[in-house]
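Page 42, continued from yesterday. The earlier attempt failed because a stray header line got pasted into the input along with the sequence. Redoing it now with the clean sequence only.
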Amino acid sequence: MRSYTRTSQTDYQSQVTTYESQDCIGCPLKEKCTKVKENSQLHIAKTFLAHQETVQENILTETGTLYRMNHSILVEGIFGVLKEDYHLKKFHTRGTSNVPNELLILAFGYNLNKIHTKIQVDRLNLYYHPLKTV
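This time it went through. C-alpha cells are written below.
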C-alpha cells in the first residue's frame, strides 16, 4: 500500500491510495481477473469518494430535486433566447478554446441583461418561476 497526490487537468489535487495484490504469478484465475503482466493494483481516492457520497445525498433530498427540476426549465429558455433573440445560429469562431470563450461572452451578456432588467423593475429577490413541489 502506498499513497501519492494526483493532480487532474483542472488542478484538483487528491490523495490516492494504491493497493496491490501480494502475488498473482501462478494464479489460475489471473487471466480472468486482470490483463496486466504484474500484480493487479487498485487506486482509490478516499476524499473524492466521500465528496461523491455527499453530493449524491444532496441531490436526492427534496430541495435538491426541486432545484434540478427548476434548473432544467430555466436552461432550455436560455438557449431559446440565445438562438432567437441573440441570433446565435452558429458559432463565429472555431477551435476547442475559442468556442467556449464565445459561449462564455454570450453568457456574460445574457446575465448582464438579466440583472439590468431585474434592477429596472425592482425584482432582485424574486424568482422567475416558483419552486415546484414533487
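Notes: Strands lie at 2-7, 13-20, 41-44.
Reminder to self: strip header lines before submitting.
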